[in-house]
Fold this sequence. Notes:
Layout: E1 9-10, H1 19-22, E2 30-36, H2 53-56, H3 67-85, E3 91-98, H4 105-119, E4 122-132, H5 139-148, E5 152-158, H6 162-167, H7 176-187, E6 191-198, H8 205-218, E7 222-227, H9 235-241, H10 250-266, E8 270-273, E9 276-278, H11 286-292, E10 296-300, E11 305-308, E12 311-315, H12 319-327, E13 333-338, H13 341-352, E14 359-360, H14 366-377, H15 383-387, E15 390-391, H16 395-398, H17 401-409
Parallel strand pairs: 2-3, 2-10, 3-4, 4-5, 5-6, 6-7
Antiparallel strand pairs: 1-13, 7-9, 8-9, 11-12, 12-13, 14-15
Helix pairs in contact: 3-4, 3-12, 4-5, 5-7, 7-8, 8-10, 13-17, 14-17
Amino acid sequence: MSSVPPSGEPAPPDGALPASSLTGLGTRPFGIYVHVPFCATRCGYCDFNTYTASDLGLTGSDDPASPASWLEGLRRELDLAAGVLGMPPSADTVFLGGGTPSLLGAEGLVAVLDAVRGSFGLRPGAEVTTEANPESTTPELLAAITDAGYTRLSLGMQSDVDHVLAVLDRRHTPGAAARVVGEALDAGIGHVNLDLIYGTPTETDADLRRSLDAVLASGADHVSAYSLIVEEGTALARRVARGELPMPDDDVLADRYEIVDDTLGAAGFGWYEVSNWARSTDARCHHNRIYWGGGDWWGAGPGAHSHVGGTRWWNVRHPARYSAALAEGRSPAEARERVTPEEAHLEQVLLELRTVDGLAAEALDGPGRAAGEQAAREGLLAPDAWADGRAVLTRRGRLLADGIAISLAGA
């Protein structure tokens, strides 16, 4: 995972973890996240830790911010990680995110997976996902990564409508994502996700339905759909501030969510997390379920976040600083923190409540259970599930998930 880092204590130069964090390592699901910070262009809505070639001022492949230097740094971090963990578990899942991992090309993507195998190994049947953009993905790339062991592709579609893609500063054209889905399935990739964004200024209900029709016709077996958030500091936020585009309306976003849920549900997709739908249990993203279930993962790459046994840490954000630290034999971790019991409880409620299995009522204290009773009476939690001892959101509850979670957690 990669995001704006919180505050924390300095991380040790060798990356060592408290002994208590290593207790039980391997008994919990374990994943590897690899952050690829490179993009061809910057989308106006994006506030992720990503860089274009012009942002980095690259002068050659030996530049400390170059993809080649990043890959060498990644190999060193994975080796460091294996040493820090002592007897590192084989990875249940690997997820390459970004950024645009497909910009690495087939050779780069294969090299990343080889590095993970060399440092950690993969469990039998491991899920291996890479994100990609349609314009940087080819049949040859898909064939090569399938042969290398990738099992899942996650494509940034966002919309299938010209004017919506233009507002989002996306480079691909309508139909491109669906074409790549077909190419991926032909190459033997087992599962394909399409990312959608709904609520973009100028988007209509008809535009969203058109995008959903394209998703369903593509053959993808997983959809992640997120409401547009206007993040501070982005080009989109500046356009909204200047009055060029309206701020997304909460009521419109709720209506659009219901369109997504109705359309996907009618086509045989089931929701299993508030923003994620899959055609089958096998099609669900098992890597994300490690995050939602409080498992362990090592996040490698600039700005990547990690969590092992109640300790979480995050790397320096700039690719040049990341590569330089590892070249000098130092951990790239910028800071870390120990998760308090109160924080762990809040995160458990916030994350587990968002899933179709919900949250065990026994995880709540007295006031939390009282809040759950009230939410069930109001139709925000499924009454039958609550009676059986689980807090499971209704669809109306999904629209208010964070607020309900906070009331249940007593935060």
